[in-house]
Amino acid sequence: MTKCGGCSKHIPRGDVTKCAKCSKCATVYHPYCLKGGDQDARPDTWLCPACAPAPAAAETIPASPLTRAVASSPEVPELVVAEDRLNSTANDTTEEFKVELGLEMRLFRQELTAVRQEIQMFRSEMMEMKNSFTATDQRLNTLDSRVDLLEQRLTEGTGSRLEAVIAELRLELNEKDQELLENDVEVTNLPEENGENPMHLILSVASKLGVNLHESDVVSAERVGARNRWSRAPGDSGEGAGAGAGRPRPLVVRLTRRAVKDELMTAARVRRGATSADLGQSSAPRPIYVNERLTKTNRQLFYQVREAGRRQSWRFLWTKKGRIYARQGQDTPRHWIRTVHDIARVFGVAPTTASNV
Question: Can you give the residue ranges of the FP protein C-terminal domain (predicted)?
Fold first, then answer.
C-alpha cells in the first residue's frame, strides 16, 4: 500500500486519487498534510516540498512552516494530522472488507453444505443400488440352484416318476368314467332305418334273446355317433341291405338296474349268432352283438387286445363289468388288461394303433 510522504501513514487504494502526487518523485501526500489547499488547484507538474527548489534569499516571500522545517532539518518532520479523520477512513474500509468477506464466507458455507447433502444423497442412492444388486444376485443364485436341482431330478428319473403318476391318475379317471356306464349296454350292427323307434328295437332284441324286458326297465335308448350316409342299404326303403352296406351306428341302452343288464348280457352270450331277423325291419338280416358299453379309452384298448390276441392265437378275449380280460387257453390263467403296457407284457407284442376305433 502507498504511504503518505507527510505523515508516513498508509493510504487506502480508493483514496489515492484524492491525494497530491509529486510529478518528480511520485510521492503521495494527504491533502490535509499540505497547506497548499486542494489538489485540484495545483498544476499538473506539482512538486512536493522535498523536490521543490529553494526560494532565492533576496525574495521576501514569507516561508511556510513546512518550508522552514524542511530547510532547517535534513529530515522531514512528521506532520500533525487529524487522527480521527484517518482512523475513520481506515476503519470504514476495513469494516466494508470484513462485511464482504463475511458474506462470501457465508455463501461458501451454504454451497458447501448443499454439496455435502448432495453427496450424502448420492451415497444413500448408491447404497440402495448396491443392496438391490445384492438381492438380485441372491435371487439369481437361488433360481440357478433350483434349475440345477430340477435338471438333476430329471436326470435321475424324477420326470419319469411324474409321468407315471399322471398315467395312474388318467387310469383312475377312466375307471371312474367306466363305473358311470355300468348299467349301459351297446347293440351293434343293428340296421338303422329312417323313423325307427329305439325303444321298440331294444324291446324286440331282448325278446329275441329270451329276456322279458319292459319299458320301465329302460332309462334311455338312442343311436350314438355321427350318422354314416352308407349305413342304409341302397334304395329309399333300405331293402336288400347286406354285407356291402355300411356299418350302422350302435344303439346305446341305459337300464334301470344292474341285474337287468347282467341278465341281458348272459342271454346274449348264450344265443350268440342272433340276427336282426324278425325285428320288423325291412333291411336284410344281420348278425347283432350285445356288449357292455365301454369308455373311449377302454374301447380302443379292447380293440388292441383283440388284435394282439388274434396274432398270438389267444382263444378268450372278453369284457366284464367294464374290465378287459384275456386268456390263452381253457386251463391258463386270465389276465386283466388295464393299459397298453399290459398288452406288451401279456402278449409279448407291441400294441397296434386304434385311433379310428
Answer: 295-345
- Structurally, how many domains does the chain consist of? 4
Helices (H), 157-227: 158-179, 198-208
* Of 200, 203, 205, the residue nearest 188 (C-alpha): 205
Last residue of a domain, one of 139, 156, 173: 156
Residue 246 neighbours by CB distance under 10 Å = 13
Q: Provide the domain limits for residue 338.
A: 295-357
Kindly state the cell numbers that stand for 220: 334311455
Please state, in angstroms and rounded to a whole number, the distance separating the CA atoms of residues 247 and 191.
Answer: 8
Q: Indicate whether 161 belongs to any domain.
A: no
CB atoms within 10 A of CB 207: 13
Query: Which stretches of the chain are assigned E, i.e. beta strand?
Result: 2-3, 10-11, 20-21, 28-29, 184-188, 218-223, 251-255, 289-292, 316-320, 323-327, 335-337
Condensed to tens digits (0 to 9), the pLDDT of residues 233-287 reads: 444 444 444 434 568 999 999 999 999 999 999 999 998 889 988 888 888 899 9
Joined together, the cell numbers standing for residue 276 give: 336282426
181: cell is 356306464
Answer whether 0.90 is exceeded by the pTM: no
Contact yes or no for 81/33 (Cβ under 8 A): yes
Residue 192 DSSP symbol: -
| Residues 71 and 127 reside in one and the same domain | no
